[in-house]
Amino acid sequence: MALTLDIVTPERRVLSVTCDEVRAPGVLGGFGIRRGHTSFMSALEPGRLSYLEAGQEHAFAVGGGFLQVADDKVMVLADTAEAAADIDLDRAQRALADAREKLKKLTVDDRTHAEEEARVRRAVARIAVAAK
Amino acid sequence: MPSLRDIRTRITSVKSTRQITKAMKMVAAAKLRRAQDAVLKTRPYAILLDKALGRVAARAAAEESATLHPLLAARQARLAEVVVITSDRGLAGGFNSNIIRRVQRFITESGDTWERIELSTIGRKAKDFLRARKLAVRKDWVGVHQGLTYAKAEGIAQELVKRYLAGEVDSVFLCYNEFKSAIAQVQVVVQLLPIQPPAVEAEAAIDFIYEPSREALLAELLPRHVAMQVWRALLESAASEHGARMSAMESATKNAEEMIAALTLQYNRARQAYVTKELMEIVGGAEALK
Fold it and tell me: At the topology level of CATH, where does A3-84 sit?
């Protein structure tokens, strides 16, 4: 029990635990954090964030944000965060279909293109986490 | 002199008014608790974001002040936009009119600084009030308060940032009720854009490794900071609204009670007078028969 992990979103504090290892989806690729990690801050992609506690892995779907490590404290500032068990797979799949549909009608220059693309990526991340 | 029945009808009507205001007060009190709770829940994220942003922005500013991120760089003051936040519903005392007054003061005070000040609104009352005063509204966000989520605040923030980056506006302000307590709300005008980075603390000395790079992180952090400001303003405004409504309904209930007491007194006097008059007539009639 060396690391403390906090996941916060703009709406609430999602999680506050101690654990052995954190795995996160960084923008430059996934990475893991264990005790004694150097002070570090990374932007996160929408994807699967998990932590290991007593050999058990607990997974979350995060919708982008930041992760910061200092003094064995891991702080995740996520735009959204859902525990794997809380994800409604049906809804996620519908959201994905809906976002893909909208994205098809848009070109890269459209104002909402980036938004819809982000929705697609978030939905994909949620489905991937929930399906495991 | 109103008749007995008139007074009785009025008492009944005031009583039902009292019932409504009392119920509204209770509802507002319950909603206020929830709204306050929502404000508190944003704290951990807000504090962490501020710290991270302060640290990243301070280092970036120290090293290359010439190439500041566009969201941080102040521009020549030409066109300002004020986003006015009110509630959708009335019956909240001075909650909404105070905000409109604050906006008008802002316009008179800083009218010289800006070539033009545009107004946009969140909440139906803001739009109605400004229209009534013949002030143009650039954009009205509808239905924000109903089922308020962070995603909505983010959407508004994104649009404002886009406009700012496109050069359509040189500065953006938020005008809203800041929640002090259930009976006190303060109307504030806060600069949203360009961003004024939060002050850094001594802790900033830690040397972080930034991934992908400090500039890239800054570009990710800044829009979230804006979204967070909008989010907080909306939550503060919601809490203030319920606080204001609660105290407005509290005094309305008290007024109704006073009125009921006064009317009841009047009713009893009138009835007494009527009874006395009847008696006199009966006695007078009996006397005449003798």
Answer: ATP Synthase; domain 1 (2.60.15)
